[in-house]
Design goal:
heterodimer; A: about 120 residues; mainly beta; four-stranded antiparallel beta sheet; about 0% helix; B: mainly beta; six-stranded mixed beta sheet; five-stranded antiparallel beta sheet; about 55% strand
């Protein structure tokens, strides 16, 4: 199984709603990521979990709250979002296995994303 | 400050010909480079990678070349097929912070039948 599964595929929410995005992988990867991508822009890193601990938070507003219940699951809780938060939200995973004494060979495997619209 | 740059937003190529996508980087600490392909409304798919100890890596129709002195890499697709039409992102990382990937802005490739 080389898939990263994201649900839902599409989400429309109002600015007062609370919703969650879900991500699952069964590749035994120990790092999981949330990226945000706007049209015609590169993916923008939001959070990284390494061995179920938050290791990188790219100064993301608190209205986005990540959660990693176990090594296979990653959630992104959304609350009081703004229209400018509308984007494709991508989950990714990687092995999280550093190579000593040489270049890394860490690869990201992405899910198909959740297209979020905030009204 | 964008550390990985793709200066060509789009490229159009005839089917059967070679497609060459370029990528430049500024951080000499990068030691691993990847190419991803992305269709609309889908997540990027890993295509090919190269580490800094090599200058070429080949996988079927896809070859990546790395020129460390010029801080430049390129992706060659030979022969190009209409199904290759997508946005291609290059990305870079470094061994001391290998969970952080820096992406270029993407090049939209159109392969005409």
């Amino acid at each position: 199984d080389t898939e990263v599964t994201q649900t839902p595929k599409h989400l429309v929410m109002g600015m007062t709603n609370k919703k969650s995005l879900k991500c699952e992988q069964h590749m035994g990867h120990r790092a999981m990521y949330w990226y945000k991508q706007k049209a015609k822009k590169p993916p923008e890193l939001m959070f990284v979990y390494s061995y179920e601990k938050l290791s990188i938070n790219e100064s993301v507003p608190s209205r986005f709250s990540p959660e990693c219940p176990n090594s296979s699951l990653l959630n992104l809780h959304l609350h009081a979002l703004q229209p400018e938060d509308s984007a494709l939200y991508l989950c990714a995973s990687s092995q999280d296995r550093p190579r000593l004494g040489g270049p890394t060979n860490e690869k990201l495997f992405f899910g198909s994303g959740t297209q979020l619209s905030v009204l | 400050d964008q550390q990985v740059k793709q200066n060509s937003p789009s490229l159009s190529v005839q089917e059967g010909r070679i497609s060459i996508l370029n990528c430049d980087y500024t951080n000499s600490m990068f030691d691993y480079f990847l190419w991803y392909k992305k269709y609309p409304a889908e997540g990027p798919t890993f295509l090919i990678s190269i580490s800094s100890i090599k200058d070429k890596n080949e996988d079927g129709r896809f070859t990546v070349f790395l020129n460390k002195s010029a801080k430049h890499l390129s992706l060659h697709i030979v022969p190009s097929q209409p199904g290759d039409s997508a946005v291609y992102f290059c990305a870079a990382s470094r061994v001391d912070n290998f969970n952080k990937f820096y992406f270029g802005s993407g090049t939209k490739l159109n392969v005409k039948p």
